């Protein structure tokens, strides 16, 4: 194996965990996994997958199951899932973070993050762990289950994109504006198959939690991971968390070489905001100032730090939010809420009219705090895809805590610099405690093996088994049931929100919501194709961007989806399609996308021979309706080809084990 690096932090981390493959961009590599992270919106499937794999106990150094998404208990279903997850954590030797303890990413950073380790999670924002000098990658739940079972993570070796930071952020500008600047420059596809590595003298002014803000939203660029060095800022963070012994210095070597290079002068960054309905739709706040605001929400894994809440509290202290504005605060962990309260900032927020919610994701995933239809909601969240807020006709904007607080006070979108100048407010950075609160009361450690072996999984009636998917046929023929545009998100494929998410562990029920934001009749028409060989979807660029939820692959597959032909795919969704036996193909000529119409009948033949390990990755798809043929190709490694042929990774592993037993 090739373990030579280029001296970057990312190369050092990859080389230290490489178990197979060559560190050449585009090559498939296998990485040893030290830690895993699962959350309740995706973790129920992970635990069912561990059961299907016959796992006795996790093989990782640390695995943690968080309950942070589905906290609203409007009926019994979420509570049933929480019981199932706790029983599975106890059975398999996993830490369990109880409901209300905190959002997975900042909580993991506080309690478990260790420089130099690998972390993968069934949540796309797992990449936030890169703020501590970790190689942290969001991926599908099945990859996480396999890692928990001791198997490596297979990924395409990314290109390393060095982002050099210089200068210091000016008053009223914060880390959120830095990542919004990257999105303004490069859009939601700019980081695909890349690791963003931040370096340069500007790092000295960014705390570890500032870096978390930036690393977190690398997911919105489509990046495989975001990496920061483990330096003095990381040591200071771990010291404040009572874990300085976990510190290891990891910095780029002198003369480190990056595949791509970028530079940001922090002193030139201005307050930015992402307009509805994409994180990449970024403009200066002053460009849209004056738009009426009805809601402003502070929190989420994209702005989770004590500093962010304290900054908003300082701005509203002694003032009242504007009439007609709902000012919502989602504390990201109980520990942060304790420190916020101890400093008096919680009182300042409440006195100003803020609504304090429990520690968790909540509004970020559409579980509560849904805005009024068509009314502007400013959020410090990572995503503003259509309908993700829980309101179909929403108008969600993404911004910094400073912009959100200033706008909550004025009732219109306001640049915080202008708010401060108009009112004669002097900028003061919040003073943070030398030692942060440490409260592990809601973290349950793994049971000893002898006790764990006696635990039975607690299944409520809403928890179904994983569907059994048959192998890929040699010929796929079916209608194009949906023609999707560019940048379709997994929120549009398998919706979040309080209506759908309680069924996340009940695939037949969840399937009824599949792609209904694009075509309300899709589930009905798709189910009708199952007995006739299934159907296909045709899509534009970056199909499946956003959340890592593998439900977006499983429920269409359950409804008869056999292949997706797109201009390009988002990384995690592409992996999830292969994991569950759906053939993901790309047009040789993107212009052919325009030649296919909904309802056209397509045929792919000779698939078994075309997907053998040594076969060329190019195929032909015939449009029977229009008597045309189009060239298509795939990016499947020999290992992934076997999985698709078998009907998914779990059937492929079962076939492999049967062959070994024979």
Automatic annotation (TrEMBL):
GO molecular function: aconitate hydratase activity
Signal sequence coordinates: none
EC code: 4.2.1.3
InterPro entries for the chain: Acnase/IPM_dHydase_lsu_aba_1/3, Acoase/IPM_deHydtase_lsu_aba, Aconitase/3IPM_dehydase_swvl, Aconitase/IPM_isomerase, Aconitase_4Fe-4S_dom, Aconitase_put, AconitaseA/IPMdHydase_ssu_swvl
Top enzyme class: lyase
All residue ranges annotated as the Aconitase A/isopropylmalate dehydratase small subunit swivel domain in the record: 521-589
Domain of life of the organism encoding this protein: Bacteria
A Pfam match: Aconitase
Keywords, alphabetical: Iron, Iron-sulfur, Lyase, Metal-binding
Start and end residues of each Aconitase/3-isopropylmalate dehydratase large subunit alpha/beta/alpha domain: 14-411
Keyword Iron among record annotations: yes
Transferase among keywords: no
Protein name: Aconitate hydratase
